[in-house]
Amino acid sequence: MADSSDGYKIVSDNRQARHEYEILETYEAGLELMGSEVKSIRQGRVNLRDGYALIKDGELWLHNIHISPYTMTNKAYNHEAKRARKLLLHRDEIRKLIGKVEQKGLTLVPLKLYLQRGWVKATIALAKGKKLHDKRESLKRKQESRETARALSGRD
Questions:
Q1: pLDDT tens sequence across 72-87
Q2: Gyration radius (Cα) of the chain, Å
Q3: pLDDT band at 102 (very low <50, low <70, confident <90, very high)
Q4: Per 3-state DSSP, what percentage of the chain is helix, strand, and coil (rounded to 5)?
Q5: 93, 91, 108, 90: which is closest to 24 by C-alpha?
Q6: Contacts of 25 (CB under 8 A, 6+ apart)
Q7: If residue 112 lies in a helix (H) or strand (E), which one and from where to where?
Q8: Predicted model pTM
Q9: DSSP H helical segments within 29-131, as ranges?
Q10: Distance of alpha carbon 14 from its chain centroid, rounded?
Q11: Residue 140: burial class (beta carbons within 10 Å; 0-12, 13-18, 19+)
């Protein structure tokens, strides 16, 4: 977990999304959360792996994100782990996303969940699913760049 002077701390990163999808655009959004969810996020008890976002009635909702229940809270006041959470974006940004998501094969996936000056923020991406051969090609390209970097660093 990175911590810097501007109050930016990454809580959870969805590295699997970068493997499964080709990232076209990214957006920063706030989240509408309960108090126990914020406390649990501050402890880093979040899983973004299977998450996705949907646009319903002009609002953006984050589904299938697992935020573990906060252990120090009474169960009556705690939250459900996989409930849908509202993402806070400007209306114009949501309108743009509606048009782009309706295109064939585009989806919204969460990439990062982080704290910025005390607020919980999410980076969501407009992404296109990769086929198996695309995944293999990107892994091959990554391996080649790694090998060239090693070779160049050995020459110094």
A1: 777 776 777 788 889 9
A2: 18
A3: confident
A4: 35, 35, 30
A5: 108
A6: 100, 125, 126
A7: strand 106-116
A8: 0.75
A9: 35-42, 91-101
A10: 6
A11: exposed
Which pair of structure tokens corresponds to residue 138?
A: 């990107």
Nearest C-alpha neighbor of 25 from the set 130, 138, 125, 118: 125
- Report the alpha-carbon distance of residue 60 to residue 135 in Å, rounded: 28
**pLDDT confidence band for 5 (50 / 70 / 90):** low
Residues, the chain: 156
Amino acid at site 50: D
For the stretch 20-43, pLDDT in tens is 888 999 999 999 888 888 888 888
pLDDT higher at 1 or 57: 57
* Token couple for 16: 């699997």
Helix (H, G, I), strand (E, B) or coil at 50: coil
